[in-house]
Every structure is written in structure tokens, then in C-alpha cells.
Amino acid sequence: MEKFRKLKKVKRKRKHGFLERTKDRSGKNLLKRRRNKGRKRLTI
What we know:
Blueprint: H1 2-16, H2 18-21, H3 25-37
């Protein structure tokens, strides 16, 4: 069961993680908004 949960985490990170966000303009804008708001964590 643990392996399945781990795989889900990997999929989630690949889809919504920091590197994925920085690839396109809208993702960069999102990170910028979250930085300006003072978020402790920008992405997952």
C-alpha cells in the first residue's frame, strides 16, 4: 500500500510542482502572486 501512496505523491509533484510551474508564463505568474502574498510554501 505504501508504494501506491508514494506513486500518487510523485504524480502530484510532477503535475503541480515547482519545476512544472516555472515552465510556462502562467505558472510563473502564479508563483509571483504567491510570493507577493507572502506564502510560506509556493507549491507542493
